[in-house]
Amino acid sequence: MDYSPSETSTAQLRYTGVGVSPGRVIAPLIPMAPPVAAPPEGEPLEGDPESAVERLSQAAASVKTELQQRAERARSDAAAEVLKATALMAGDKALIKNAAKLVRNQSLSPERALWDAASGYADQMRAMGGYMAERAADIEDVRARIVAELRGMPAPGVPQRTEPFVLAAEDLAPADTAVLDPETVVALVTSSGGPQSHTAILARNLGLPAVVAATGVTDIEPGTPVFVDGSAGSIVSHPGTEHEQAVAAWHRVSEQLASFDGHGALADGTDVPLLANVGTADDARAAAAAGAQGVGLLRTEFCFLGRDAEPTVQEQTEAYVEIFRAFGSAKIVVRTLDAGADKPLPFLTDTTEPNPALGVRGYRTDWTTPGVLERQLQAIAAAAQQTEATVWVMAPMISTAGESAHFAQLVHAAGLEVSGVMVETPAAAITAEQILDRVDFVSLGTNDLTQYTMAADRMLGSLAELNSPWQPAVLRMIERTAAGARAASSESGVHKNVGVCGEAAADPALAVVLVGLGVDTLSMSPRSLAAVAAVLARVDLDRARVVAHTALHAASAREARDAVRAQLPVLEELGL
Ligand code: PEP
Ligand code: MG
Hints:
Blueprint: E1 6-7, E2 13-16, E3 18-21, E4 24-31, H1 49-73, H2 77-90, H3 93-106, H4 110-128, H5 130-134, H6 136-151, E5 165-169, H7 174-177, E6 185-190, H8 198-206, E7 210-212, E8 225-229, E9 234-237, H9 241-256, E10 274-278, H10 281-289, E11 294-299, H11 313-325, E12 331-335, H12 365-368, H13 372-386, E13 390-395, H14 401-413, E14 418-423, H15 426-430, H16 432-436, E15 441-444, H17 446-454, H18 472-492, E16 497-500, H19 508-517, E17 521-524, H20 529-536, H21 541-552, H22 557-567, H23 569-573
The chain binds phosphoenolpyruvate (PEP) and magnesium ion.
């Protein structure tokens, strides 16, 4: 793969990465603002203290106003709440009063005085623990914003602009994403991050074209117009007429792919239920509105990211009830907390592990922090009782049939009927039959299954080529899982469902391969439903099996993808 920029004309530079979310746009590129450095300790005041205090108050007031305006424009209630709470902190009179005291009494610069006053608050809040401790990071965010304002620098994090732009970053953290405004951010490009990174997942959720692992994009001069193609994985600076035409062509086909009628099926009528991956009640409502036939993956840890204490059973129940209600009586596959690796939860994970992706993560946290899983199952059961939802529960990061049996036992003890596990490790794929003798269903988490099969960190852009679910080795793991499920089904006389809830399901070409390999249901970000449905509707089961055979026998991920795409002209036709 070519990761380096190549010159196509004197003005144009082309950057190649991995396309992770389709779409084509042209807009100026704006990089993520760098973090704000602490003003030097004891930095002295220059000039008159009263005018410094005045500057301080004005900076705090303008940060407050900006945050309030962003709260009004926020895309979700949750983001609006975060922004409103941060705005309140920026307007906190006691904070400014304390900082003013430091300016007047200790002759500190307003930047340093504010820094010290806010740090004092943050430390106090951390010491209080619980909810207050979780707000300490918000105070630090306000501190950075006010200091940036005083210095006349851009606010840290996602730039706020009124005109559309392409956001360039090394990678995006989940926290950046809550406040990203898809009205103005029209594409995401990163120099790092793999196809299964949070940036990729977020881009698909928002329906934004995105390219990851494109080395050099963060060095492009801010404001330079760029063309982004999220299918081809390319970025071109100073685009020309051919790029404008490519954008116009995308607009024409994307209209055809704007809606899903809520029924996933192949051309021969074989049902392939298409479900949604969600993390919050807002997501669930959006997924239901997009026609999802249920939830194939509820990432419960997303309801509680940033919490430093275990949520109570009551709090959890309320959160799940709100999510379940979005779907009436449809199926909701709830995944128990998948804390660890790139999603640490302070009450469950040890962040000092040398190798967290291979450490105590997911189901394994039940060994080090017993009780949390049982209380979560209790909350899920209570929420199921209070709603009409058809609730299935599954555990992440399972490696053995014994773990599966233990999980099923906990699920049944909580009064829930249907238990399953994620197949995310080669061990689980290889022993799928034995696992399915003990649980009712499996769901392939292809993001982790890929990283563990290929021994390639899913967060690393430099390993993006290895970290592709198109890798024939990964496809063989999927085939093996489906074969195990068939054997367990015929042995027990009960159909054992095989789903896919990793990002692979959202790739329309790969979706055909997955169905051909024997997968029953696909779960993805709601934005991908229409495109996947449109392609499946044009392929029958025999064709899907032939296509899957081609992919399995390819020599590389690239060869598998190219060969499959060549066999599915519908992709080209739909601009996918
Ligand atoms: C996966 O690993 O494919 C998966 C769906 O889980 P997550 O992305 O949350 O690790
Ligand atoms: Mg996973």
